[in-house]
Amino acid sequence: MKHKYSSISSVEIIADPMPCMTQLIQDKIEQFESRDCEDAFCVCDVGDVVNKFKAWKELLPRVEPFYACKCNTDEVVVKTLADLGAGFDCASKGEISQILKHGVPTERIIYANPCKQKSFIKYAAKHNVDMMTFDNEAELVKVKELYPTAKMVLRILPVSDVKVQCNLGVKFGCHPNNVAKLLKKAKELDVDVMGVSFHCGSGVQEARAFSLAVSQAHDAWQIAVKLGFNMTMLDIGGGFPGQKSAPISFTEIVSILNDALDTYFPAEMGIRIIAEPGRYFVASAYTLAVNIIAKRTVARDISDADGCNQQGVTKNDEPSHMYYVNDGVYGSFNCIMYDHAHAEAHVFSDSPLRFTSSVWGPTCDGLDCIIQECRLPEMEVGQWMYFPDMGAYTIAAGSTFNGMPRPTIHYICSQEIWDEIYPDHCTAKRRCESMSSDADFPSIMATGPDVRSLREAASSISCIEDEIVFA
Ligand SMILES: Cc1ncc(COP(=O)(O)O)c(C=O)c1O
Q1: Predicted confidence band at 470 (pLDDT cuts at 50, 70, 90)?
Q2: For residues 310 and 240, which has the higher predicted lDDT (pLDDT)?
Q3: Residue 318: per-residue pLDDT
Q4: What is the mean pLDDT of residues 250-276?
Q5: Which of 65, 264, 326, 423 would be 218's cystine partner, CB 3.0–4.6 Å?
């Protein structure tokens, strides 16, 4: 039987050398314009995700990455990471079920939400997803009742003054002063505690956050050992940077982190060390292109400038342009609200002139402002802007408020990387593989036997013009 579906979001295999992302976006825009299409779209470079995985394995060899899929639940990203052998950090029944559908063994899944809904715990129990975090007594009581054989990981609150993009300590983590009391409660309830975890905060800006947290995890670990728990796992959470412009690089973090791990949890201990990176894997893989759907030019009414532009017009005399684009803070740019992100607009223009500009989303809400003030060449309605580093905490929480569509996603991968991960794929056509959102998901993958690896699926695909046929 053949299952057909149209190739809305195929992975496009690009022959090496792969053009730069700016060129790829420009090519895609040309295709769009030739079809009279002006919708916002993302380009996702699957190869970028693969390269991140390879860098992780090389630089942090003792730590198994469990991708925090809350960051971006895109099926292509999840499938790619699953096929590469990554583990997954899930926070809900929905996320667990998505990961199980990809055939990921339960030893590679941690239910890393310290405050879980009862029915979700039952779901985890039914599917043997037994590693889960806790940071409070009530959670222990629930787990004892609903999943008494669960393997619990104590999430501690790393206490430090380190700067982070998003502080998670306000919501989660057992303070070091309360660790002994909570562990004694676990003992009393006969709950199996087998690990310690922490999360330094999302978007860590100083590497020492990790060394401090590792030493505090060691303190908690010692208390647990003294109480008689068989401790076998350390979970160092997320917080790793995902884009080149981050205040601190992954390399800087790992040099300090590896030292701390070797000091407090040396290899001879024979324990399992995992991490829950989210933005690290996906931030830089996505570039979002938006169309300027409207423009207003307003007189400047503030006197904050001193220079002249090349036409001798002082900045105070310049007009200021308001650009309205077709994705905004209710869509992919929700990261501005939820993730304290700063968007950086790029345009295609040779003009050296720059004007005070602001960039707004498409909805009718005044809050829907992407950039309050920046300097851009003058742009016209119908032209495009693009935003790099749009993969983390963007499309995952985007809504369709005001009926505004979410951007479509176009997947690309360099031939070299694709061949490396899927050596058996069909090479006859450039456009040869696809997995997208649930609705477009090929029925052969959505129903049982519920998992086929991407590699198997790809080898059973034959490509014809604009559609893909699963044999
Ligand atoms: C429990 C947990 N693990 C991992 C992550 C991923 O963090 P990051 O994207 O900073 O790596 C988060 C993010 O909020 C989280 O809450």
Answers
A1: very low
A2: 240
A3: 77
A4: 97
A5: 264
pTM: 0.87
Element (H, E) at 10: strand 10-14
d(CA 336, CA 135): 29
Report the C-alpha gap between 446 and 425 in whole angstroms. Answer: 20
| Cβ contact 437:75 at 8 Å | yes
Rg (CA), the chain: 24
Summarize the confidence of residues 299-304 as an average pLDDT: 56
| pLDDT confidence of residue 203 | 80
83 CA distance to ligand 1 centroid (A)?
21
Q: Are 52 and 74 in contact (CB under 8 A)?
A: no
Lowest-pLDDT choice from 244-248, 267-271, 424-428, 461-465: 461-465
Other beta carbons less than 10 A from residue 465's beta carbon: 8
b or e along 175-191 (b: 16 or more beta carbons within 10 Å of the residue's beta carbon)?
Answer: ebeebeebbeebeeeeb
How far is the C-alpha of 336 from the C-alpha of 370, rounded, in Å? 7
- Average pLDDT, integer, range 158-185: 88
What are the residues facing 386 on neighbouring strands? Answer: 289, 346
- Between CA 261 and CA 350 the distance in angstroms is 50
The tens digit of pLDDT for each residue in 211-228 reads 999 999 999 999 999 999
Does ligand 1 have an atom closer than 6 angstroms to the CB of 87?
no
Structure tokens at 430: 């450039």
Q: Which residues of 240-268 are buried (b: 16+ CB within 10 A; e: fewer)?
A: bbbbeebebebeebbebbbebbeebbeee
pLDDT the model gives residue 451 = 27
**Cis-peptide into 423, omega within 30 deg:** no
Choice from 52, 71, 109, 393 to test ligand 1 binding pocket (greatest atom count within 8 A of CB): 71
Q: Which token pair is 364? A: 């009718």
Enumerate residues 6+ apart whose C-beta is below 8 A from 74: 44, 282, 395, 409
Of 357, 412, 350, 397, give the one whose Cα is nearest residue 15.
412
Residue of the nearest CA to atom 14 in ligand 1?
202
- Spatial CA neighbour of 375 closest among 334, 323, 325, 324: 323
- Would you say residue 134 has pLDDT above 60? yes
The phi and psi torsions of 125 (rounded to 5 degrees) equal -65, -45
* Residue 314 in this model has a pLDDT that exceeds 70: no
Mutate to test the pocket of ligand 1, among 67, 111, 168, 257 (most ligand atoms within 8 A of CB): 168
**Interior/surface letters 378-406, b for 16+ CB within 10 angstroms, e for the rest:** bbeeebbbbbbbbbbbbbbbbeebeebeb
